[in-house]
């Protein structure tokens, strides 16, 4: 298990820094740094860097294989984020759905889509052993 002194880092492309900053701050992420070519966020305790690279944007994104997000271990926090996304009218790529119903790996999930067509998945497993 991860120790609290470690932070996961992810870098993704974006097409416009202002639009990207507004989106991720609207999602509740804290803007940590901004430069002429990138913005860095505290993404639910991890580091997300959005590099200005409009030529690398997926014209038609697909869930698999490329997406990222957060697996919640607290259903209340998952529901809070879902309510926040609905309240802020954030664009959904996939509305909330139940996957693997009745199986050990059953979980609820939804996908958001950012302004550069990056897909963000948020999920909660009923069985905490299935998080990894």
Automatic annotation (TrEMBL):
InterPro entries: Glyas_Bleomycin-R_OHBP_Dase, Glyas_Fos-R_dOase_dom, VOC_core. Residues 6-125 form the VOC domain. It holds the Pfam family Glyoxalase. Transmembrane segments: none annotated. This is Glyoxalase. It comes from Metabacillus lacus.
